[in-house]
């Protein structure tokens, strides 16, 4: 009987190669399945259209009677495109998106039916919320959850279903999702950034945060992936010896994309175009079978929705091409993991990128203002930034000498370092006109170098300035970007508020505006010196240095998550009106609960694989060896040992490994039992982290040794070389 592994290998090699027909012109199909401005102009009355526009641009509320008109237009548009159902599409704290489809269809008695979709159904729904994580919120308030339309992210068609992006909140208003705090953070950031931007241009009335994510992922042949219980259940391999060839030749990065993968990518990109997701870049990543996809940046809320939509669509398209997409941060030991760089900036309604050094001294003062304030915000909240990317899966990646370390620092490049150093040296008080011009011009003169720095940048930094945006690189590939973006928006908003207050106070004391700004910035540069680091983030030297600088170095998720419930965090969110205490604490609770559950699942899967796959196979092979030794004894009598040395040693080694695996599993289960009895979620997470997880490595080590010893023909689990190099 062939094992699952051999069946899978056979299937994968028989795979009919799909070829996508010549793709249509992208610009022609872009946004065709989105209820965008063009569709709205066609299907909505002028009043309805203006209502939606005002909601998007000015955050105005949409009146109920208008909602009825809008929903009718939306329905007509969707049905004309073949839709039969609609759903509120939301982001519960599970990390994926949720949808519950309802048909447009409604009976009207006498055996008749019509297609219906009223304003009420568009604006609000009540999904059965009890099965989504809520961190105790709904137990406390005994309130149900409901979803509410977010008009700032356009509805779209996924297959035959009209999807309406929504927020998900409890009846008493507490956020139960990722989108609600993100939207609140974007709103407060708009206010504070606009106020500061007005120092430089009175015409600015709105500022949006922009986000361009870069999604890394692995593609594995579907049958091969399905033959591995660990990939199926935990999203990553829990055992597997590294192949003879890994990524050491660096021959994959930017290499030519394999034909089958390219077919997948083209198919995916077509779908993205239809859905209005502006994907632009694709390339091979460092590890074998690892790839990256990046869009043109968008307003952050839309970009987050598009990333989630992309991940969903990717899984579906991969299915068509007999691939499985792995979004896990570390699906394979020994080769690089995956991240999701979040490129972030601020853009005004006057069309200016506030983090772009400009061509005039005034524009550069503006640039310096937002640049320095962001650095200060990260400096003052580095631990919260670290917490925003903490998860069981990202723990494998951070600090693993391939991804940013668990220490948060900011890289800005040598040219800007010089500019800040000079600014710091300026004596207190009033700047001489010459000093001022010099400083402002300094940046101008250095623009070519700053852009040059952009290409020659430090890949070991978790938070880097890359010419006209900050790139938050420590975000995990599996994560919803909303969480890190909410934190970043919030801390920068708070920082800009403080900046404004300080500058205004100086102006009130009759200091000139420019001088006031320079003076405050100079102090900020001094205060946030410790967060700036241009060196090698992977080195041990940095760990020591960071400790001296009193930067946090939280290596595990439970440790990193602690700050999420700190009094300072609650105050930050409450002051800004982004989350209240209950919401903040619930999020910590959910995060630690999820952590413990992930490790629990991995522990169970590992135990099963080791006991049900690895050990029986090892015994089978050991029996073959024993039979062989017995045969040799029959033939050679007392002299048999001369011919059976290798076999005898293997028999012994196999027994040792089996013994170690067995005891490892038994001890791990004991620790799991103990951990499960702990009622406090955070303590349970720590128990899983500190007492259960360490067994993973022990068990894996011996399983991987057995993989090397046991006859390949009977090894049941698809091997790394097959998972990683099958094209
Ligand atoms: P990398 O070398 O890091 O892969 P890319 O140029 O491929 O760089 O990706 C850069 C990402 O940054 C893209 O998604 C791009 O849309 C995004 N980006 C560029 N400008 C901005 C901006 N002003 N705000 C946010 N994101 C931006
Ligand atoms: Mg990048």
Large-scale geometry: globular
Amino-to-carboxy terminus distance: 26 Å
* Overall SS class: alpha+beta
Low-pLDDT residue intervals, each spanning 5 or more residues:
none
Work out the strand percent: 5-15%
Into how many domains do the coordinates divide? 3
What ions, cofactors and ligands are bound?
A: adenosine-5'-diphosphate, magnesium ion
CATH class descriptor name of the largest domain: Alpha Beta
Number of alpha- plus pi-helical segments: 27
CATH superfamily of the largest domain: Glutamine synthetase/guanido kinase, catalytic domain
Radius of gyration: 29 Å
How would you portray this structure in words?
The structure is a single chain. This protein is an alpha+beta fold and 727 residues long. Strands 9, 10, 11, 12, 13, 14, 15, 16 and 17 form a nine-stranded mixed beta sheet that branches. Strands 1, 2, 5, 6, 7 and 8 form a six-stranded mixed beta sheet that branches. A two-stranded antiparallel ribbon has the order 3-4. Helix 15 (414-425) crosses helix 19. It is globular, with a radius of gyration of 29 Å. The model has no long low-confidence stretch (mean pLDDT 90). The site of magnesium ion has 3 residues, from loops. Magnesium ion binds at residues 214, 341, 471.
């Amino acid at each position: 009987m062939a094992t699952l592994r051999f069946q899978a290998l056979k299937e994968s090699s028989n795979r009919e190669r799909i070829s996508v027909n010549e793709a249509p012109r992208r610009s022609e199909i872009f946004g065709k399945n989105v209820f965008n401005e063009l569709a709205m102009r066609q299907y909505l009355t002028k009043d309805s259209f203006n209502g939606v526009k005002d909601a998007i641009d000015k955050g105005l509320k949409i009146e109920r009677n208008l909602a009825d008109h809008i929903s009718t237009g939306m329905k007509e548009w969707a049905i004309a495109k073949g839709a039969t159902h609609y759903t509120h599409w939301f982001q519960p704290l599970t990390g994926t998106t949720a949808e519950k489809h309802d048909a447009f269809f409604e009976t009207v008695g006498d055996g008749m039916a019509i297609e219906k979709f009223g304003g009420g159904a568009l604006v609000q729904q009540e999904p059965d919320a009890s099965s989504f994580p809520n961190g105790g919120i709904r137990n406390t308030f005994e309130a149900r959850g409901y979803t509410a339309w977010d008009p700032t992210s356009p509805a779209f068609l996924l297959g035959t279903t009209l999807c309406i992006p929504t927020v998900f909140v409890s009846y008493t208003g507490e956020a139960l999702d990722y989108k609600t705090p993100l939207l609140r953070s974007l709103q407060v950031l708009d206010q504070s950034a606009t106020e500061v931007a007005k120092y430089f241009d009175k015409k600015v009335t709105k500022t949006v945060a922009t986000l361009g994510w870069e999604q890394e992922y692995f593609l594995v042949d579907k049958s091969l992936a399905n033959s591995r219980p660990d990939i199926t259940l935990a999203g990553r391999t829990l055992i597997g010896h590294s192949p003879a060839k890994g990524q050491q030749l660096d021959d994959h990065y930017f290499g030519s994309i394999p034909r089958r993968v390219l077919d997948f990518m083209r198919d995916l990109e077509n779908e993205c175009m239809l859905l209005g997701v502006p994907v632009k870049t694709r390339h091979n990543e460092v590890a074998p079978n690892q790839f990256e996809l990046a869009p043109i940046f968008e307003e952050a809320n839309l970009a987050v929705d598009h990333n989630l939509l992309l991940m969903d669509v990717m899984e579906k398209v991969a299915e068509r091409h007999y691939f499985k997409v792995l979004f896990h941060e570390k699906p394979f030991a020994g080769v690089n993991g995956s991240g999701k760089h979040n490129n972030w900036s601020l853009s005004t309604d006057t069309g200016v990128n506030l983090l772009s050094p400009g061509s005039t001294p005034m524009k550069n003062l503006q640039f310096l203002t937002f640049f320095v304030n962001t650095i200060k915000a990260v400096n003052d909240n580095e631990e919260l930034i670290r917490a925003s990317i903490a998860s069981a899966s990202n723990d494998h990646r951070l600090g693993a000498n391939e991804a940013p370390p668990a220490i948060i620092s900011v890289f800005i490049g040598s040219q800007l370092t010089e500019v800040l150093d000079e600014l710091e040296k300026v004596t207190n008080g009033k700047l001489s006109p010459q000093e001022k011009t010099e400083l402002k011009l300094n940046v101008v003169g250095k623009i070519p170098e700053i852009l040059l720095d952009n290409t020659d940048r430090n890949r070991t930094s978790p938070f880097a300035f890359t010419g006209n945006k900050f790139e938050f690189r420590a975000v995990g590939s599996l994560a919803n970007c909303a969480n890190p973006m909410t934190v970043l928006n919030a801390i920068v908003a708070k920082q800009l508020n403080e900046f404004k207050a300080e500058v205004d106070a100086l102006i009130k004391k009759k200091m000139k505006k420019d001088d006031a700004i320079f003076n405050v910035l100079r102090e900020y540069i001094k205060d946030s010196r410790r967060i700036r680091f241009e060196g090698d983030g992977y080195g041990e030297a940095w760990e020591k240095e960071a400790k001296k600088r009193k930067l946090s170095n939280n290596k595990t998720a439970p440790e990193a998550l602690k700050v999420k419930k700190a009094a300072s965090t609650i105050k930050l969110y409450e002051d800004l009106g982004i989350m209240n205490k209950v919401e903040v604490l619930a999020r910590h609770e959910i995060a630690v609960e999820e952590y413990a559950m992930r490790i629990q699942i991995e522990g169970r899967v590992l135990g099963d694989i080791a006991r049900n796959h690895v050990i029986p196979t090892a015994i089978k092979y050991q029996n073959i060896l024993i039979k062989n030794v017995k045969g040799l004894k029959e033939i050679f009598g007392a002299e048999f040992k001369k011919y059976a040395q290798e076999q005898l040693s293997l028999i012994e080694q196999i027994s040792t490994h089996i013994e170690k695996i067995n005891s490892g599993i038994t001890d791990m289960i004991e620790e799991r039992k103990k951990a499960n009895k702990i009622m406090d979620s955070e303590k349970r997470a720590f128990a899983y982290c500190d007492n259960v997880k360490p067994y993973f490595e022990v068990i894996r080590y011996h399983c991987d040794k057995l993989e090397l010893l046991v006859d390949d023909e009977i090894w049941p689990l698809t091997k790394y070389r097959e998972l990683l190099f099958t094209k």
